[in-house]
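Something for you to look into today, if you have time. Just paste the record in under my message, thanks.
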Amino acid sequence: MIRIPFLLFALASVSAAQSGPCLADAFLDVSEAPGAGPAYPRPRVEATCEGDELVVRANGIPHYEFVQVTPNPLLERNNEFRLPAKPSLADKPVPIPLLGGIGVAVNGIVIFGPNEGPVPAEEQFGDPVFNAIMDACMGHTAQEYHYHAMVQRCLSLGAKDGDPSPILGFGYDGIPIRGPWGCIDADCNKVVRHRSSWEKVREPHQDAWDAYEYVEKDGPEYLDACNGHAHDDGDYHYHVTETWPYILGCYSGTPTGGPVRGRRPPEISQARPGQRGERPGPAANRPPRAGQGGGPPRGGPPRDQRPRPEEVQAVASALNKDVAEVAKALRVEPGGIKPINFAASARTLEVDTAKLIESLGRTPPPPRQRRNVAPPGEPECFFRCGQSEENAVGCTLTPEHKVLCFRPCDDNKCG
């Protein structure tokens, strides 16, 4: 086992090509980290500033021990992310995509939104954290290893609870994502753990975006709908939170970044024996991809597919539904920031998905053929890691970068 001094890895960073506002030095130097394990490639992440872009090149391998909690194998990627080095706020919030990447962590791992994909059948588009299918660092494998939530100690070993949090990643709009702790006054005399302003209205086993609603709240600890806030000096950034949406609820800036190259290196393109890759979701809900990275294509974010007012009216007439009911189901009510999901909308309206899409004047995708993939065995001690609930597990990494739970997790053994 390779031992690394506890603070060495936390303080090491990739050197920037230029000084100034570009934050390439926020990314970790993973060259001496033990990585996912002896059966996997070494982790790689490089960050540089090139003109007005923050360019991140990474292979998608975590710098800590990989614990498999889904049937999907851990495979090396060849991702290149190009983010705005000097991001600015958009005129209004921009919805994040339903599926695929929305940002990149400081270890080069892609960040996904807070909902899961269309499978398994009983948890379609559910909350993967609530459904307990995440590892101790809130990651798991599908097309690639990715995060749906983030644990600060997995990405910054030197960070301490109660101290202002470091940058843990960036959205595709270039805006930094910090850990949960932040200052609420100019001199940083008071630090709070930031809280999401989204409220759970039902259990999010399925169609998680319909299980949570944003409710504006007073108090310096509460964040906006995108899970961010601005300081008096104009500095805007996101914070990770222990409850939905965990990382981002929407983009506050303009998402121009994302993978521009995402294919797996040919020598490792095959899954290990006995394992299968991710099952693709319906084409109507699948975001545009660059390579295989799951992010926006080069040149800009995915095209806005939100139904127009006349389409909402057409659906209401075709299905004999109230216009307001249809607008809410389609997530296009005034100020709507939730990603479009026609399958979820159809379930809400109690109609067939193909019929809903046809009533919009669009062509429904061909039926998806299901494949039988055996679920993984119950992983040990990972449920709700980092959460502050009664049965939560407090998880962190040891100096050897092994996952360690420092509170009992029911009757499971931690290690």
User: Anything to note?
Assistant: The radius of gyration is 21 Å. The longest helix spans residues 309-319.
